[in-house]
């Protein structure tokens, strides 16, 4: 099988490429240049796509003895992932750029280009498993719970999953992967993991948004409409946020307040007590379902997850046109924001995914 190995310059993708070679595939390594203004070096563990990362990927490819190329996907990345990130925050929603990157870049632009060039599959260093089943391939969680990435991969859907290879799917810890890299003589074996949003290398998301969207002063109000503070742009706030509110008037009962709503049309941020953040109903749109995942009709029991490293909670789920509906059957979820991904699981298996459009409290308190 001809396999295109996506090589970021980190240890995970290097070991994934090595395992693809070891499996007997014809492997070609590709580094995706996603930033228009790449730095020479990363800032510690922040960011990615630096010239240093491209060099590390090339050295790994040399050790493995495979061809290596750099593909400039920066314009596509800017037009899809970054533009979506800005538009979602501007609309008062909370996006997950890693989900959009997997959707539009790694398993759309990269995979489609690989297919056009005659490759059978794309291999990446994601921590997830593909399990063959009679109805088609299934996406499952990684045994490495701390690194599991099935949540951000759920958006890829069944057709793209059939052309994806995740060689790290069986590894239970990152230490095992680093040991594998060291054993193979890969210099990235001790390289720090990257974290945070890759295109916000300094970690200052609010500063990045302000640099792109400008200053837009407005009011912070409580749930009664009283002005309790000011902000420089409602787009910089997300439901559930507590820090950085700089409220001029404390709550009458002295309790902490959280962002409970962002209203972009009026450029208003609404704050209130923490109990207003608890929800047991979720609606999602742009749903993606995997083969054999849905029952014939109606509600079915499952677990749902709304954050990349959040805990799954029991729920009843049903598919609706272009979306899904969720009713939590156990604990409430706190601070669910429109724009987040809601992923549906049964055990380790991913059934489907949608983008949260609304979350609310339907269950009577008590």
Automatic annotation (TrEMBL):
Database matches in Pfam families: tRNA_Me_trans, tRNA_Me_trans_C, tRNA_Me_trans_M
EC numbers, comma separated: 2.8.1.13
Chemical reaction(s) catalysed: S-sulfanyl-L-cysteinyl-[protein] + uridine(34) in tRNA + AH2 + ATP = 2-thiouridine(34) in tRNA + L-cysteinyl-[protein] + A + AMP + diphosphate + H(+)
HAMAP family the record matches: tRNA_thiouridyl_MnmA
A GO term for molecular function: ATP binding
Top-level EC class: transferase
One BP term from GO: tRNA wobble position uridine thiolation
Annotated keywords: ATP-binding, Cytoplasm, Disulfide bond, Nucleotide-binding, RNA-binding, Transferase, tRNA processing, tRNA-binding
NCBIfam families: PRK00143.1, trmU
Name this protein carries in UniProt: tRNA-specific 2-thiouridylase MnmA
tRNA-specific 2-thiouridylase MnmA-like central domain: residues covered: 207-272
Species this protein is from: Antribacter soli
InterPro entries linked to this entry: MnmA-like, MnmA-like_C, MnmA-like_central, MnmA-like_central_sf, Rossmann-like_a/b/a_fold
Cytoplasm recorded as keyword: yes
Phylogenetic placement of the source organism: Bacteria, Bacillati, Actinomycetota, Actinomycetes, Micrococcales
Keyword Transferase: yes
Residues of the active site: 101, 198
Disulfide bonds listed in the record: 101-198
Assigned GO CC terms: cytoplasm
Region (Interaction with tRNA): 147-149
Every tRNA-specific 2-thiouridylase MnmA-like C-terminal domain range: 281-356
Binding residues for ATP: 6-13, 32, 125
Protein role: Catalyzes the 2-thiolation of uridine at the wobble position (U34) of tRNA, leading to the formation of s(2)U34.
Subcellular location: Cytoplasm
Site (Interaction with tRNA): 126, 340
Family note: Belongs to the MnmA/TRMU family.
């Amino acid at each position: 099988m001809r396999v295109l190995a996506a090589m970021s310059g980190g240890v995970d993708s290097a070991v994934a490429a090595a395992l693809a070679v070891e499996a007997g595939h014809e492997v070609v390594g590709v580094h995706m240049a996603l930033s228009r203004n790449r730095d020479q070096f990363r800032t510690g563990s922040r960011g990615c796509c630096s010239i240093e990362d491209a060099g590390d990927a090339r050295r790994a490819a040399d050790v493995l003895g495979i061809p290596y190329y750099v593909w400039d996907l920066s314009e596509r990345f800017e037009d899809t992932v970054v533009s979506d990130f800005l538009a979602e925050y501007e609309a008062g929603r909370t996006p997950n750029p890693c989900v959009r990157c997997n959707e539009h870049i790694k398993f759309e632009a990269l995979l489609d280009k690989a297919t056009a060039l005659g490759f059978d599959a794309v291999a990446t260093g994601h921590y997830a498993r593909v399990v063959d089943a009679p109805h088609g391939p299934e996406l499952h969680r990684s045994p490495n719970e701390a690194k599991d990435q099935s949540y951000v991969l759920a958006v890829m859907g069944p057709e793209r999953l059939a052309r994806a290879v995740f060689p790290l799917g069986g590894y239970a810890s990152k230490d095992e992967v680093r040991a594998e890299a060291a054993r193979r003589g890969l210099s990235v074996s001790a390289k720090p993991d990257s974290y945070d949003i890759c295109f916000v290398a300094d970690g200052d998301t609010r500063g990045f948004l302000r640099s792109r969207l400008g200053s837009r002063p407005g009011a912070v109000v409580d749930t009664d409409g009283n002005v309790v503070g000011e902000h420089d742009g409602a787009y910089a706030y997300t439901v559930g946020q507590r820090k950085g509110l700089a409220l001029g008037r404390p709550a009458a009962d002295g309790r902490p307040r959280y962002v409970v709503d962002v209203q972009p049309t009026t450029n208003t941020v609404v704050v209130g007590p923490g109990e207003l953040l608890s929800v047991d109903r979720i609606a999602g749109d742009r749903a993606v379902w995997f083969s054999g995942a849905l029952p014939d009709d109606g509600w079915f029991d499952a677990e749902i997850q709304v954050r990349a490293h959040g805990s799954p909670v029991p729920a009843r789920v049903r598919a609706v046109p272009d979306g899904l509906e969720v009713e939590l059957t156990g604990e409430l979820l706190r601070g669910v924001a429109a724009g987040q991904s809601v992923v549906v699981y049964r055990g380790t298996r991913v059934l489907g995914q949608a983008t949260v459009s609304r979350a609310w409290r339907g269950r009577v308190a008590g």
